[in-house]
Amino acid sequence: MTSGTIVPILVVVLVLLLLAASIRVLPEYQRGIVFRLGRVRPVYNAGLRLLIPWVDRLVRVDLRVITHTIPAQEIITNDNVSARVNAVVLFRVIDPAKAILEVEQFQVATSQIAQTTLRSLLGRVDLDQLLAHREDLNVDLRARMDERTKPWGVEVRVVEIKDVELPESMQRAMARQAEAERERRAKVINAHGELQASEELRRAADTLSASPASIQLRYLQTLLEVGADQNSTIIFPMPIDLLAPFMGQSRTWPVGFAPHTAGPQTTPEDARQEPGTA
């Protein structure tokens, strides 16, 4: 191989190396921040981009939503209950230039802000609010974090509290409290039932007292029910007021059942004391 053929080959190889060092392809979900001799250039959009080798430096920025899990944080609620809380944060870059120029490693910074905001906010609420109003706390957390990350060109989309771990003693206390609450509700329901039953019995008593015949029919029905049992002897008290309608009937007595109304009777002793007669 002569020198006349080596030189063109070297030129071709050098051109290929220059092209490989200068051509960059950006996907649709990425943007490029180019530093030329240390100064930032306009943001490169997706597509084929050419750089000056050894002069330009390209930094890729992903615009997709990033999912970050906050490690479990030890917190003490406003009512002095210790708990371990972990959460998940979803955020994305909305300004690639700020995300690179305003903060070093925006993902790490966002994670640290999420941890401190979580401890700060949950330390000012009670345990009941933490367990019952988790959605409201998620909204408040997202608003606070987004306010602090916006200057970096980072938007916090979602913050969700995942798990709340309580000590075993607190779990047992909550179980006893729930059981006491269920017993209280059961007693209230029973009391309402007894109240309604007493009101119905009072109305029934008022109705029966207004109609003596109804009372008689009720007693007769009770006698029939008792008589249906296999009992040899039945003692059933009969109120005297039930006999009042019968006592007002005609005082004509059957023969042999008329009450004795004769005058004073003469006993054998009185007959012996009287003077003799014919």
UniProtKB/TrEMBL annotation:
Record-linked InterPro entries: Band-7_stomatin-like, Band_7, Band_7/SPFH_dom_sf, Stomatin_HflK_fam
Transmembrane segments annotated in the record for this chain: 6-26
GO cellular component terms given for this protein: plasma membrane; side of membrane
Keywords: Membrane, Transmembrane, Transmembrane helix
Residue ranges, annotated region (Disordered): 257-278
Basic and acidic residues composition bias: residue spans: 269-278
CDD domains: SPFH_eoslipins_u1
Domain Band: 21-178
Domain of life from the UniProt record: Bacteria
Database matches in SUPFAM superfamilies: Band 7/SPFH domain (SSF117892)
Family (UniProt): Belongs to the band 7/mec-2 family.
UniProt-recorded name of the protein: Slipin family protein
Originating organism: Raineyella fluvialis
Highest classification ranks of the organism: Bacteria, Bacillati, Actinomycetota, Actinomycetes, Propionibacteriales
